[in-house]
Amino acid sequence: MGVTKEQVESSLTSKLNPSHLEVIDTSGGCGASFAIEIVSEQFEGQRLLERHRIVNGALQEEMKQIHALSIKKALTPEQWKQQQETEKSKSDA
Prior knowledge:
This protein is an alpha+beta fold. 42% of the residues lie in helices and 23% in strands. Strands 1-2-3 form a three-stranded mixed β-sheet.
């Protein structure tokens, strides 16, 4: 049995305390492939590569069974806020 979406969410929540987290099982239910959007204060001052390393590190045990992890977004709360405002202004136009 592979990793569940809930296991990924639990590990990321306990280790990175995200203000936004979206985990999508892209494997069709077998738990081998996930797409992630995460917003965490722990990303402050970190480059994108380091943010991905932080996420991979938080999922160290789960990664033993995950074959594909797509980190769609790894943002700071401020970046997330700006992105949401930009998307809202586009939809209002």
